[in-house]
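lol so apparently i was supposed to do this last week
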Amino acid sequence: MPEFLGPVKGFGVTFRQMFRKVDTVQYPEEKHPTAPRFHGRHQLNRWPDGLEKCIGCELCAWACPADAIYVEGADNTEEERYSPGERYGAVYQINYLRCILCGLCVEACPTRALTMTNDYELADNRVGEEFLPQTSVLPHVDAVIIATPPASHALLGLKAIAAGKHVLIEKPLATTTDAAWSLVDAAEAAGVVLMPGHTFEHNAAVHKLRDLVRGGQLGRLFYLDCARLNLGLYQTDVNVILDLAPHDISISNFVLGSRPTTVTAWGSRHVHPEHEDVAYLRLDYADLGVRANIHVSWLDPHKVRRITAVGSKKMVVYNDVADGERIRVYDKSAVPPEEGDGPLSQVAYHLGDVVSPFVAFAEPLAVQDQHFVDCIANGSHPSADGSSGLAVVQVLECAQISLREQRPVALAEVTRRRMAAGPTLDAAFTGTSVG
Ligand code: SF4
Ligand code: SF4
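anyway here it is w/ iron/sulfur cluster bound
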């Protein structure tokens, strides 16, 4: 057959298949009935008085051949009683991506707490059916964690604070300084805990980095260098600075124990038509005489999460994607010639050992969330509070101005602007409608 007839033959196959009767049904409009006694979604049951039957014994988890069940038991108390006996299932999770619907967990349960229903749907494509609006949820909770697109953070946070709820907001706290100020002011007035999701400030490796820098082991700190690179994930509502740099800004502020005075940023749009996908920031900490350089990118072949601290005596590299040895201390330095001692070519180099100190691992997100709960329960002040969230947002706003106007921007500029404008609560949130 001549080569040019190849595509015609291919279309012939397509047309033949197009008019064949299909075996599938239009799900979810036409639901396929399940077989009698089909065992599907699991259900935890209660006694007639409303108390839970589950006693958190974990026997179902032990019996599960797919390792799909996770249970954490806890003690009932007279003040807080969830089940009739001593223990109850405080955490009960089933990973349905693993579950093979064998029913062994139901067999294993000594209290008949667990049964399997006839349902097979685990999710729904109708958002309204699966998620309740924020206003109907708020009366039933003490605290809220907001992990939504950054542009919605301030509005959702203010609604929760207005309802008297403690709030943990994913980074960045807000997308503008005015909005971040509003959150801080509102939380203070309502007497609720406001925490930004600065996960790395709850990371043991970052604590180690801070101790090394502030403990003086590196000598005089020259600079910090941060790189947060990967291929993607492109965001639709913010550029790469707002997406990735909050981590490095919060780490730099935390490690140095200070706030930058001037921010310079430059970036470029390669793939995204509206938002910068590669950017560089320079943060000047004038009070310390130290500079932090930050490189963020959605367009790099390597996943890099690295902070380097360079001092006059030693250097430290914190590599967050290293399997072990996330912190490495390099006994290396460049020693300049004494004044009037000769040309710069006579710089001497000190080359010593590389040491990786032990850093106990604890999941930073879990540590952060536990800290949030502890602050609420004990009435204590969070280590990373609303003002540290605000400090990061101020740097982000300076970076956006610098990007636009191609000049260094002093932090005082955004602080002064806000003070001149006064503490407006809603100017920054026009048009955002979530939940
Ligand atoms: S049905 Fe089987 S696989 Fe699924 S959770 Fe129960 S024991 Fe595990
Ligand atoms: S569901 Fe049953 S087996 Fe599983 S933890 Fe609760 S009481 Fe134990």
